[in-house]
Design goal:
single chain, 137 residues, mainly beta, Immunoglobulin-like, five-stranded antiparallel beta sheet, 1 helix, 15% helix
Length: 137
């Protein structure tokens, strides 16, 4: 009698675990990276495509781009200086546009928050640091 109950419980757990985890993640694709030679104060305009399961474009989100200035003391730690830029819908399903301005020269890390909160799956996607030039160079 115990064995069939254990098998039923195990099968139920597997079935419901798959349902609970379905749909809870998204990827982001960027139209560009900050271009080489981008100077402080110049805009980097980027389109962000948010894809559920890496496939289906998602509307109705409010993604953001956050930039963090790195110094000799802040390798991967949270930098003291950070700025967040809202991305706005472009009219194309799942595509949002942000206008990002790095306020000073130096090394900056940037990240995109996808805002896909459905199923508790919102994630911040991090990218390699970029060097921003001084103004007028």
């Amino acid at each position: 009698m115990r064995r069939p109950l254990l098998l039923l419980a195990a099968a139920s757990a597997l079935i419901f675990a798959g349902t609970a985890l379905a749909g809870g993640w998204a990827t982001v694709k960027l139209s560009s990276l900050p271009p080489k030679g981008l100077a402080a104060g110049e805009p980097w305009v980027v389109d962000i495509t948010v894809l559920q399961h890496g496939v289906t474009p998602r509307d109705g989100l409010k993604p953001t781009v956050t930039i963090r200035k790195l110094t000799a003391r802040t390798t991967n730690a949270v930098a003291k200086e950070s700025h967040t830029f809202a991305a706005r819908p472009t009219g194309k399903t799942g595509v949002y546009r942000a206008r990002v301005v790095f306020p000073s020269a130096g090394t900056w890390r940037f990240e995109v928050y996808d805002a896909f909160t459905e199923y508790g799956g919102a994630k911040t996607h991090t990218f390699a640091p970029v060097k921003i030039a001084k103004r007028g160079t």
